[in-house]
Amino acid sequence: MELQKEMIAEHYEALARAPREGRKTAYTFVPGNLTELIRMFDILPVLPEINALQSGMRRLSGDYIAEAEKHGHSEDVCTYVKCDIGMLKKGNIGPTGTRLPEPDLLLLSYTGCFTFMKWFELLRQEYDCPVAMLHVPYQADGIIHDHHRDYVVEQLRSEIIPKLEQVSGRKYDEDLLKARLEESARSEDDLVHVLESAKNVPSPIDSYFGGVYYIGPIFSAFRGTPEGSEYYRALRAEVDARVKAGLGPVTPDGTMKEERYRLVVEGPPNWTSFREFWKMFYDEGAVVVASSYTKVGGLYDRGFRHDPSRPLETLADYCMGCYTNLGLPSRVDLLESYMREYKADGFVINSVKSCNSFSAGQLLMLRQLEERTGLPGGFIESDLVDPRYFSAANIKNRLESYFQMLDQKRSA
Ligand code: SF4
Hints:
By secondary structure, the protein is an alpha/beta fold.
């Protein structure tokens, strides 16, 4: 946690220095991000969702959302978008207090969520810079076909790389890209090792609340960088030591004493009351052993690794494989397999109304998962970064009833 906080803070510092140092920046999204390619051109990525969630954790998002609503954005719009637009309207000061640079490129890698496209349409009205769009085909039948891959690679060649060359003034260098992809694969191995450590009983990690710290560097600006690899080496060593010592996960109140419930969680977390939300789980001895949220930036635990021997093809496969790009049947299959592999006692859905990409179909998922596994599901509702939609008493009540149900099921 400490190390990743330092890395993220340093990245914001680098962004603040970028205009002075003549470094270029690209605004781009987490799922399907092309970090290795962007950084090969020495362009710094700015990730609007990360800005929004960091603003949420620092309790800045409420004012930003109010600002966006003043400008006419409806209550139903994804609150990441409103947080971002509000922050921009209030001077574009990032969550750590430093100013964010204006983009030299808006790089939209379109993976599964339609909101991404509308979001960048709004940003395009604000900034005078080129826009590059990578259209990533949705995995409707859960299979990446060759013609899908060819379609994405062709766009990388004809649209994305030329724009990156134009903005950076550098030529595409495949050897440099390969070196970065090699670095990525190392971090991905370590991350999977960490996530799979939750198969131990007790689990040494919490794969949702703790998980957000584990995915932070690889899902943001650090995939394919030496700092990223170093982070994952250190994390893996720390988690291995916890397994050896038979320790449970670290929480904000220290090591979790007793593991009473093992859960799989679907849906993104709430950020404005992140610690309070987490506490509702660890106070009851509930540990999340697997989650879908930790897969939005890549499904590495299902075997995908960036492969330097086929650099553009591997970037295409990566974009198409992100969780947000999967259809409902694939999502249900994935969650079911997690429940079996991680010996879960049940699953909880945190439904976020304003995130269409996650919330669509969640009630159907709940029913199907209960039928297939025979395990009880819980359903709670909150929001990403809008503090108006986090009702602590309501969520706590629902969770307590859910844990009682798990107890009853166990004793029966
Ligand atoms: S709707 Fe959900 S997936 Fe789409 S941009 Fe908003 S938070 Fe991200």
